[in-house]
Amino acid sequence: MSLGELAKVEALDAQGRHTDAIAALARATGAGDLDAMAVLGRRLLVGDRGPCIPLEGARFLLEAAQRGQPDAQERGAALLAGGLYAPQSWPSALKMLGAAAANGSRTAQRQLAALTGRADAGGEWARLASAVDLPGWLRKPACERVREDATILRFPELLPDPICAWLIERSHGRLVRARVYDPIDQRETVSEMRSNTTATFGVAEVSALDFLIQARMASGCDVPLTHFEAPAVLHYETGEQITPHFDFIDPRSPDYEKQVQVQGQRIFTFLIYLNDGYEGGETAFPELGFQHRGARREGLLFSNVDAHGNPDLRMLHAGQAPTRGEKWILSQFIRRRPVR
User: Fold this and answer.
1) Quick check: 333 and 295 in contact, CB under 8 A?
2) Domains of the chain, residue spans
3) Which end of the chain is more exposed for a tag (fewer CB within 10 A), N or C?
4) Distance (Å, whole) CA 336 – CA 340
């Protein structure tokens, strides 16, 4: 899409004429403009200032990807990795991610660099993608049980350092004040109980590497990838915290039964510690009299329900404030039923 045509679309959006902007993208797509097709696909996928037609959006993205548009290839790799509106395939996802990187997508290049530990592929991005050890990556990671009286598992080497650094880097600029769910008003709101910031990666932002990280966690807890909510990176400056809370869907919520019936209870929480170099900041379980100070690369899995699937009140937990430095973790909720 020429800079002039793109400027016209941006001007229409700036005027609030989103329907006209979508129409302009559709006309350019119909004329064979792959850049317009990629932009239109992304917008339709999530309803960005226009209709939400995810199947049509995915179709445009995958068509543009097959025809060599690098941004569409990067998004297409994510769709194939997660099985989002397309058949799930790790080999196809990596092949498309390698093609995107070879065609100049910096986002794809950063993912492959983090995944392989190779900051510079010397232009051989496709070969680098094909050399990823998928069986090794998807193999069940080593873990140890932390408590005998509760399901809390520690994974000492869950992610390599480059991926931890990539997760932190891509979260800069996306952080917003974390919110809590108010079961009375049935909405998320800012609260003093949670002063940290967070970056969540939904369908529009989630990457092939995000799904590979989720797949590694899925191997660790034996729950299918489709049961994973959107991943979130949490950031705690010195003094920031989240006070004691539960991660299960609260039975006091007015729509509790409907939520659990449709999406299932949040049965597990998986944390991955992304950095060192701070003091304090333990994950505390006051009812169990237990605190855990995670180290970079380490995963911590705990169950939010008891053996009968009911909310486990012993799993009250808190993210304590760092007393020096800043803390980064990946937080992942896992449901009993598929969420996609």
Assistant:
1) no
2) 3-130, 144-335
3) C
4) 12
